[in-house]
Amino acid sequence: MTANAKNGFLLSSGQWQNHYLNNPVSIVVVNLMPTKEITERQFLESFNQLTQDVELTFLYPATHHFKNVSFSTIAKAYVSLAEIENYSFDGLIITGAPVEQLAFQQVDYWEEFRTICDWAERHTKQSLLECWAALGGLYNDYQINKHQLSQKIFGIYQATGINKCNQLAKHFTNQQLVIPQSRHSNPSVDPENLPDDLQIVAENNEIGPLIYHSPGKHRTYITGHPEYEADTLAQEYYRDLKKRLPIQEPRNYFSNRNTGEIKYSWRKSSTQIYQNWLNTFTQQKVGTLV
């Protein structure tokens, strides 16, 4: 079907063209990534592949000090929570952010992040938190802290175990569920002693759970980046090499390292992940932003 942007940099610059939608699913995306336009496109392209029409509204944390864009510029392109807090949406997505090596309380928008998570429980049907946001959500919701890793988890990882009873795992086998990963931290969680109401949907026997779900909080936590395009990890890899930062080649990513050819192995998996998430609430739609 079709994904439209309610706002954002791509829409305002004419880089994304909207089309007629039929009773669209309304989703707020809290875009914490520094590459705002790239991230907008990744989510719009991802949701453009689904079976429902979707309208994305992009939100910024008003308490954040932006380095790559002026506050006035982003305030014109995005909405703040204060502007939409009285509305209801079908879903909320919070992206990853390059702040995972900081303690949660050191992140300038941490309290706003917690407020958004609380707001989502009352104003959306389901929320989806990715990468750093997943770590932050697990800490906020269950007091599960994170720990720094000696080596960055970087590459494409497939599930070695799936909870097939969970709707989020529908249509998947272990080999089919693969997710890009790019992070320096892992949740300090004991899979055998999970908090009440927290389930593991998919896990990898090397790096741990890939997807968690809380039925009670109507929240999904994905430790990676299903939205990543084919060359996103390559750009991160070559960027860090140029900066002489410690970085290993992304695992299970290049089909031919000498030529830089990439195996886009997670595309169908990402579409199914987002489709399964959308299917958890599309039969119980709430009002859209007017």
From TrEMBL:
InterPro entries: Class_I_gatase-like, MetA_family
Marked site (Important for substrate specificity) residue numbers: 182
Site (described: Important for acyl-CoA specificity): 100
Signal peptide span: none
Record-annotated active site: 131, 225, 227
Organism domain of life: Bacteria
SUPFAM superfamilies noted in UniProt: Class I glutamine amidotransferase-like
Keyword rRNA processing attributed: no
Localisation per UniProt entry: Cytoplasm
One function term, GO molecular function aspect: homoserine O-acetyltransferase activity
A biological process term (GO) from this entry: methionine biosynthetic process
Positions with a binding annotation for substrate: 152, 182, 239
Pfam families: HTS (PF04204)
UniProt keywords, alphabetically: Acyltransferase, Amino-acid biosynthesis, Cytoplasm, Methionine biosynthesis, Transferase
EC number(s) recorded for this UniProt protein: 2.3.1.31
Assigned GO CC terms: cytoplasm
Role according to the record: Transfers an acetyl group from acetyl-CoA to L-homoserine, forming acetyl-L-homoserine.
PANTHER family: HOMOSERINE O-SUCCINYLTRANSFERASE
Protein's name in the database: Homoserine O-acetyltransferase
Species whose genome carries this gene: Limosilactobacillus vaginalis
Highest classification ranks of the organism: Bacteria, Bacillati, Bacillota, Bacilli, Lactobacillales
Gene that encodes the chain: metAA
